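Troubleshooting: if your tokenizer reports a length mismatch, compare your output against this known-good record of 360 residues.
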Amino acid sequence: MRRRDLLAGAGSVAGAATLSFPTPAIAQGIREFRMVTDWPEGLPGLQTSAVRLARAIAVASGGRIKIEVFPAGALVRPFETFDAVGAGVAEMFHTSAAYFEKKSKAFNFYGNTVPFGLTADEFFAWIQYGGGQELWDELYGQFNIKPLLCTSTGTQMGGWFNSEITSPDGFNGLRYRMPGLGGEVLRRLGAIVVSLPGSEIVPSLKSGALDASEWIGPWADVAMGLHKAVSYYYYPGFHEPGTGQTLGINRAVWESLDSGDRQLIETAASAEYVTSLAEFNMNNALWLRKLRDEGTVKILKFDDSVLRAFLSISNDVVAEAGAGDDVSKRVYASYQQFRASMMDWSEVADRAFLNSRRLA
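Known-good structure output:
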């Protein structure tokens, strides 16, 4: 039976968790795992982060844990990664939690795809020290998966458009690619929101199937060729203030590891989060400057009237995302409480410093 056929017949993830599946190779203490991703092959910052994490785990384990990384479509189709790992078709995934929000709106809090939510540093602090990991374990445990935060793209841009946006009315009827809660905000502004794999964005923009799309930031966006498809590039990315990606591990596989190997993987994932954030920040600054110097793309800030409309709608959308079952309510309460405390500190620390740095 092909792996895709197995996925199609697995039914619900809860049911799939009881399926028998091939045990990873265990020979002379060596474990061999497959990691599936939702990123195009070679995509800088995301697919390369998954590969770097796999290598770091192999090196740290002295070669005892070997992970083969498969880009989108190589082992399972795009957006099948979550179910594949829950069912044991693959042992690990590297992807965004927001892609699977239909399972639970609370997933958005763990992709940090929360409009006007936490920055990358704040998000990491919530996961590590604010109770976020414990609630995440509970949420994903329902789907037979152990989650770990492993990659950060930092602050994102607002997206690419084929025409200028001067007011909230500009979103009415706009065909826009944006997943997660940000997409719901735009839908309530009248946009026609779609979710597409990254590999389909540029062809859809060029063909006119899309009028606009968000992706990540200058580095990854240029690598995808978005700057050759449309000419208006907006900021800030209200919808994803500090996006984090997930290393998901089949629960049975995770529980089969001893405590030392679990700690090794947790440490490697945390290190990759910090490393990837530094990499994105450096390259985003570099490619933003290149785009400005080339002058073929208009880099524009959303008008304050647009940002106010985003914020007004976002408050309701985020609250609704946390109004599901008991776990979702507790995730929402924890995230919002942490956000409030971080906003107070960030105003005193980061914003005050950044404003003072501009005085010169």
